[in-house]
Specification:
Length: 406
């Protein structure tokens, strides 16, 4: 083992100060070691030498281990190299990056698309590029952290509306309109990542149109899940042409990593000149672009994967409901098992792990205080037998923690 050199007083003082914050997390039951997977991400995973049924990933369709994606990544690295060594705007755009964007635009039925390093950076990049002083953003209170951070980076005013509340959204839009802002942008998650509910997009779009606002939808959890061949919420609700900005991630159902915005050519041109993560952070390895293209091929040619995802979703939700768990208002493969305090959620997660199930407890700040939960996501690759085993583990652990109603 190598020993580290002695640390200066200043270095130690920083550690002491940070350790105080960490102690507070421990007191709240929120201190968590990283779970290290000793296997590929799949319907089962190996952690600490044990095989566990995995309900913790966003790998909805299991595409990360699909032979076509792996082949594309391997071939891509051989042919194009491991990295790009540049940002997109200088020398980091290769044919494969533009091919992926053309495919994404076609998939989302928009004029153009632009890729970013992740879903997080696309939200931060797009919001900070499109909104300036004199503009306003109207945002759902439970939007994803990356949207909140993007909004924080703008000088635009912000108006929050109650979660999925059309009347409150209309109030905010009317207030925005009355003030005569230059740009009004309404932003919502398509599927909310912690509750699994779907944004009331038709009502939001209609109201936004009434007040001269553009709409941005973040379909991180909807792409590959909702709509024709997994095209997302805009397609699910038949709103093509009425949503200005369709955000997505390549890191969840698509099975690789990255983010994109599908929009008009004008939006794409604007972002190429203004979006800071695009300008100042290097582009994806070509293997990433090529495996994402392979993922789109799979989405278009193997719709049975999405059917399987939804069949598993119905089976698992029904099982949890019959056991008497509070599973919130989810309409998608994301199913929260509500626990109240963070300590209970972490305890449930631990009990499940002892029983062979990997399902993460989630507390503040990812969800509001008092709304801690174990969040489950089933995938297309789980077998019915695995889901039934998981339900047995939930029943046993839930009984111990007195989480079952009735
Ligand atoms: C996961 C998620 C992101 C971030 O995507 P990454 O590609 O993991 O950075 C953005 N928005 C929403 C709504 C998400 O759920």
């Amino acid at each position: 083992m190598t020993t580290t050199p002695p640390r200066s007083d200043a270095v130690q003082a920083l550690d002491r100060s940070l350790a105080e914050d960490l102690d507070r997390l421990r007191e709240e039951g929120l201190f968590r070691p990283l779970r290290v997977l000793e296997s590929p991400q799949g319907h089962d995973v190996v952690i600490g030498g044990r095989e566990l049924i995995n309900l913790s990933s966003n790998n909805y369709l299991g595409l990360n281990t699909h032979p076509r994606l792996i082949e594309a990544a391997v071939e891509g690295a051989r042919k194009w190299g491991a990295g790009t060594g540049a940002v997109r705007t200088i020398a980091g755009t290769q044919t494969v990056h533009e091919q992926l964007e053309t495919r994404l635009a076609a998939f989302k039925r928009t004029e153009a698309a632009l890729c970013f390093q992740s879903g997080y950076t696309v939200n931060v990049g797009v919001l900070s590029a499109l909104l300036e002083e004199g503009d306003v953003v109207v945002s759902d209170k439970l939007n994803h952290a990356s949207i909140i951070d993007g909004i924080r980076l703008t000088k635009a005013d912000r108006l929050l509306y109650e979660h999925c509340d059309l009347d409150d959204a209309e109030r905010a839009l009317a207030a925005a309109r009355a003030k005569g802002y230059r740009r009004i942008l309404l932003v919502t998650d398509g599927v909310f990542s912690m509750d699994g509910d779907i944004a009331p997009l038709p009502g939001l779009v209609e109201r936004a149109e009434r007040y001269g606002a553009a709409v941005m939808v973040d379909d991180a959890h909807a792409t590959g899940v909702l709509g024709d061949h997994g095209r997302g919420t805009t397609d699910h609700f038949g709103l093509h042409g009425r949503v200005a900005l369709n955000i997505g991630t390549l890191s969840k159902a698509v099975g690789v990593v990255g983010g994109y915005v599908a929009a008009s050519q004008t939006v794409r041109d604007h972002l190429i000149h203004k979006a800071r993560p695009f300008l100042f952070s290097s582009s994806h390895p070509p293997a990433v672009a090529l495996s994402c293209i392979a993922a789109l091929d799979v989405l278009e040619s193997e719709p049975e994967l999405i059917e399987r995802l939804w069949a598993n979703t119905r089976h698992f939700k029904q099982g949890l409901r019959e056991l008497g768990f509070d599973i919130g208002t989810s309409e998608t493969p994301i199913t929260p098992v509500m626990c109240g305090e963070a300590g209970t959620a972490m305890r449930l997660s631990d009990l499940l792990m002892e029983r062979g199930v990997f399902a993460q407890g989630i507390g503040f700040p990812t969800v509001p205080r008092g709304r801690a939960r174990v969040r489950t996501i089933v995938t297309a690759t789980h077998t019915t037998d695995e889901l039934d085993q998981a339900l047995t583990a939930f029943a046993d652990a839930g009984r111990r923690l007195e989480l079952l109603r009735g």
